[in-house]
């Protein structure tokens, strides 16, 4: 027994793309998949077994740069 996508002479990834396109086209207007929610990421620095403040990635990068700048000037 052979897989249909192999018998058709296409790759599995191509088979998945074709199947996904068929499903998307068959959905009624307005009944598409729900939009993805934005993920919220927090970064915490740990020292001596204690968790520091939870920061967003932008805040964490700014804090690391400030910390590195303070270390250079010392």
Automatic annotation (TrEMBL):
Q: Which InterPro entries does the UniProt record give?
A: ATP_synth_F1_esu_mt (IPR006721), ATP_synth_F1_esu_sf_mt (IPR036742)
Pfam families recorded: ATP-synt_Eps (PF04627)
Q: Recorded GO terms, molecular function?
A: proton-transporting ATP synthase activity, rotational mechanism
Gene Ontology biological process terms from the UniProt entry: proton motive force-driven mitochondrial ATP synthesis
Q: Which domain of life is it from?
A: Eukaryota
Q: Name one GO cellular component term.
A: mitochondrial inner membrane
Q: Which family does it belong to?
A: Belongs to the eukaryotic ATPase epsilon family.
Do you know which PANTHER family this protein is assigned to? Answer: ATP SYNTHASE EPSILON CHAIN, MITOCHONDRIAL, ATP SYNTHASE SUBUNIT EPSILON, MITOCHONDRIAL
* Protein name in the entry: Related to mitochondrial ATP synthase epsilon chain domain-containing protein
Q: Which organism is it from?
A: Cephalotrichum gorgonifer
């Amino acid at each position: 027994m052979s897989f249909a996508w192999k018998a058709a002479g296409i790759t599995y990834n191509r088979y998945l793309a074709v199947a996904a396109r068929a499903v998307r086209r068959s959905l009624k207007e307005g009944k598409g998949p729900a939009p993805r929610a934005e993920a919220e990421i927090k970064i915490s620095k740990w020292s001596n077994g204690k968790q520091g403040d939870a920061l967003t990635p932008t805040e964490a990068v700014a804090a690391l740069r400030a910390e590195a700048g303070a270390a250079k000037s010392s």
